[in-house]
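Would you mind giving me a polypeptide sequence along with per-residue structure tokens?
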Amino acid sequence: MKGRKICALAALSTLFIGLGVSPAEAAGPVTDAGRDAGAYPIMVVATLRAKPGKGPELERAFSGIAVQVKAHEPGVPLYQLVRSRTEADTYKLVEIYLDAGSRAQHRVTSYYQAARGTLRDCIASTDPLEVFDAIR
């Protein structure tokens, strides 16, 4: 699992560079002390387990949200659901927000709010969210 997290962090750094944001600009200091805590990119990884038979519905719901995110949320360069090849009904949702404001705004969009009921009906369990900050 440690190797996967390192790969995810390397991908995050590569994405920031691709967006024209240097790792130093993206990250800020290692701690929040003395910095604007909302002014740095954030990667969120959610682990979701679908109820038996609900995977396709879960995928459709997230695909619908992803289309809206791409069209209306420039502060969210990546919003991607991926399915495990090894664990049945297990998914990861990978989200990258350019700042805390983009993350907060995403949570209150009409399309996200509208999909929440469907998502609750499809998801059997989740792990605690993993939240990453870019590294200098």
